[in-house]
Amino acid sequence: MKSATTDSILQVAPKIAPPLDPNFRPAFLAHRHFAEAVRQSGQGVPLKLALERSGGQVAVYNTQTFPEGHTESEAAYRHAERIVKFLLWQKGGAKVYVCGPAAIATRLKKDYADGGVRAFDAEFMAQVYEKNSFEVVHVGEKDFPKGNETSAPVGRHLEGCRIGFDAGGSDRKVAAVIDGKEVFSCEVVWEPKINSDPQYHFDGIDDSIRRAAEHLPRIDAIGVSSAGIFIDNKTRVASLFRKIPEDLFEQRIKNVYPDIAKKWGNVPLEVANDGDVTALAGAMSLNDQPVLGIAMGTSQAVGYVDEKGHITGWLNELAFAPVDYSDQAPVDVEWSGDQGTGVQYFSQEAVIRLAPQLGIALDANLSPGAKLKIVQDLFKSGDKRPRAIFETIGVYLGYALAQYAEFYPLKHVLILGRVTSGEGGNIILAKAREVLEAEAPETGKRVHIHLPDEASRRVGQAIAAASLPVIKK
């Protein structure tokens, strides 16, 4: 943890403070203030970052920083490290090239090594891309790689009798769809994150498929939306299965969705990250793109459909990406151990974290979903206290969207998930728009934020998921 004095250039108080978080210091304002400080110094030097992932794809990011030995060198490193952290969870990568001050590259290499403060991130990336280790290398201009990124079409297949399944952290949703029309949908509460028996997960998924199958004359395809990273429909990393022992994960969970499809007649199957399916749902309903989809549920799920209506192959795991540079920012104790990352601001965790400040007691033995419901029910019954929670999340969202617009070409943002249910969602949306108008008016004019109707908000992902598979003639 840095002290406020060592990187005060990045500690910028917002014009609109979250009602329940006076210490909030948005990353967006830090980036803007840092860039202006570098410009005014007249000593700015280039800092180029390249992230290499599978298939030879390379994402490149260019910025300016202070030269080595400058009095603001600590802030320069903090700025660079936070940018790298964001890019890793946005785009992914197992190797980072740094072209710029050597001191920044040296500290990044140390922090992202075994035992370093970013070891979690390094180990995660190595696992995702099946590398022995995560690398940070310092290179000169001539050895800096060129950007190389591609995208691919996804979903929008509506013909036939399809099932769309959405695996959430507190409930599982399913929809039966015939030629693009929903004929059945339902939600079932479950607790995948605390169950270590693979059979519990298989049976839960199978039960949802069965419920939808009862409303179809046949099953032509199954599409799945789930938190996590999936390659060739196989589970690579997913928080839903965090309690499963490693050996059982390999035996039963890695192929759980192909095994489900096999049970139901070896029908075509397609699995996609729930964030990407959220973005797809938005692009389908709006008939426009690009779209950033943000699902605020058990965690923060994010997906992106680009200008072509394609998915990019990026991770978009912004639950781990920093949005708050305050030294008092909450810590992601459960996973990364880092401060100020999205999961603490755009999920049930945010509601649970903020509620005690209003004197709202939540039984520690309850599930996160049940705690959220208590807060939402209080608000629905006329208790005015929870309004401050949703206003606070709305302020967070406004500043985060201004930040996201630095990294994503944006036109539409779709917000979904249990946290946005009821009147709380409207409050979040209104506050986010207020922040954009005050702090980033050009972004506010260009980016349209959408909150779907209640039914689409809850089961829209399952319907979009149904469109994922191609039915071969």
Short key terms for the protein model shown above:
473 residues; alpha/beta; Nucleotidyltransferase, domain 5; 5-stranded mixed sheet; 37% helix; globular; disordered N terminus
Overall geometry: globular
Structural class: alpha/beta
CATH superfamily of the largest domain: ATPase, nucleotide binding domain
Number of strands: 17
Just name the CATH architecture of the largest domain. 2-Layer Sandwich
Please report which band the strand proportion falls in: under 5%, 5-15%, 15-25%, 25-35%, 35-45% or over 45%. Answer: 15-25%
Helix proportion range: 25-40%
Instruction: Compute the CA-based radius of gyration.
Output: 22 Å
What count of domains describes the coordinates?
2
Show unreliable segments: 1-6
Q: How would you concisely characterize the structure shown here?
A:
The chain has 473 residues and is of the alpha/beta class. It is 37% helix and 19% strand.
Write up this protein:
The protein has helices spanning 27-41, 73-91, 102-111, 119-128, 198-213, 246-253, 256-263, 274-286, 348-354, 368-380, 386-407, 423-439, 441-446, 454-466, and strands at 45-52, 58-65, 95-99, 135-138, 152-153, 161-167, 171-178, 181-189, 221-226, 229-231, 234-237, 269-273, 291-296, 300-305, 310-311, 412-416, 448-450. By secondary structure, the protein is an alpha/beta fold. The chain folds into two domains: 43-143, 2-Layer Sandwich (Nucleotidyltransferase, domain 5); 151-473, Nucleotidyltransferase, domain 5, CATH 3.30.420.40. The strands form five sheets. It has a five-stranded mixed sheet. The protein has a four-stranded mixed sheet with strand order 2-1-3-4. Helix 8 (274-286) crosses helix 14 (454-466) and helix 9 crosses helix 10 (368-380). The longest helix is centred in the last third of the chain and has 22 residues, at 386-407. It is globular. Mean pLDDT is 93; it is low at 1-6.
